[in-house]
Amino acid sequence: MHEHFQFTVLDVLNRKHFEHTQVIAGHQGLHRTVKWVHVVEVTKIHKLLNGKELILSTGVGWKENGELFLSFVEQLIESDASGLCIEIGTYTSSIPPEVIQLANEHHFPIILFLKEVPFVEITQDIHAYLINQHYQMISNLEAYSQQLNQKLLFIEHYNEILKYLHRYLGHQILFRMHGKEVEFVPECCEAKKQLWLKQVAQPTKKAASQSLQLFSHEYAELSMISTDRDISEFDLLILDRTATALAQYLLRDLYVEEKKRAREQEWLKGWLEGEHSVQTILDYLADHDVELKPKGGCVCICKFKSLKQHSAFDMTYFKLLFRTMLEQQGFQSFPIEMRGSIVFILVDKRSVKTWKQRMQTGIQRLMDSEFANMKNMPCFFFSVGKFAESLALIHKSYQTALETSKIQQQLSQKTKSCFYEDLHLARIISLIHKDGDLHEMMMEYLEPVIQYDKKYNGKLMETLKVYLACNGSKKETAKRLYVVRQTLYHRIQKLESLLGADFMNPEKRLAIEFMIQAYEYLAAGNE
């Protein structure tokens, strides 16, 4: 096993000037780490220590005062000191039983110098050792990092990095990627696996974990468990360097895979056109994910605005980010680049009942990501087509996604949903607009109100819309418009004169509400 750079109280006892010593309390704490040595002769030390210091003292601060001595030891324990070494003779002749009891309870070593020793030489010796040890630790860490970087150039699987970490430190290694089983290096029996998993879930001094961040989200977790000693500071540094190297390897692997996907564009375009049979599609999916059991799928179009003005935009990275976010929600994505947009075929691996909610979550996380909010990021929006329970009908989802995109562009910011199934009236209006004269039909119902507002700068159209939304409630309408009742009554009388006194009758009212939607649809297209 590699040097772990953990200097303990027991190691101190084996050094020069500690030949004539006696451990009288806290024997179970001899494994405590020592990071520095201090000579302390005062009894109030709360603000003097940082933790892990071995304290040397003659006892002049408390002399034979048992209460002061007990208080002093309590402060050392609270400050996480490593232990206390006392010179017996000049100021301290004996250790009170209550001090020994306290030290034993907290596994806090108390060591007696049976002969006079030079404290200055002890501090010089141990400090020199610790400084040299720290220098050697940094040197070894850099050597490890260089060897790791060299391995990254040649390895074919990240498992080689895990094996290298195990050989270097000798610890049990656990690696978990989201959506996959935990990997153990070295392999062990099922009983030990369960034991290791419990230790990682409830960290102790013998276990440590480091998350791997990709795209500002946790992509995997690397853990190690020691079977014979506490995890040292050096172990944690090695773990951090290894996690960074693993993240680089996984990102590179994902990037290479994304580049490979770009070469499959033609086949995917054929899928969008409905050219492939169910079996052909399943064969294709089997080549990409053996465990995939599709529940159906849909098409999501991401359309960019002014893409040519953002030459630094990394399209491959964006596709990789989208894929990662949607995979976390149970979708396998297959992107196709098309004239300023990316079309994603999304295959659902979970319950059909929750597909829309999961899709919304994935898209929102992408929209909230640091990459999507960069200053040089082009504006973009998503359009999601109708869900297809058969993958051979993905072309129908594609057509509805195109229709959704068209409606979104027509309505600009007036539509909040990116899902085809949420557009309702907008879809009907779009269909009428495409096959008939929507403007003429709309003017047949609303022209008198429109002309009145233009001529008198009135607010009859706004009043009509709110009045219908309030189901004819005058009180609620006045409240929403922030007008007094008399003003509202006057406007309603004017609407009756322009639209007819029967404009609130069910059939006519429904037609007027529909035409108001058409009016906003056409107005948005003219902005």
From TrEMBL:
Source taxon at top rank: Bacteria
Domain spans labelled PucR C-terminal helix-turn-helix: 460-517
Domain Purine catabolism PurC-like: start-end pairs: 11-130
Protein name, per record: PucR family transcriptional regulator
Species annotation: Anoxybacteroides rupiense
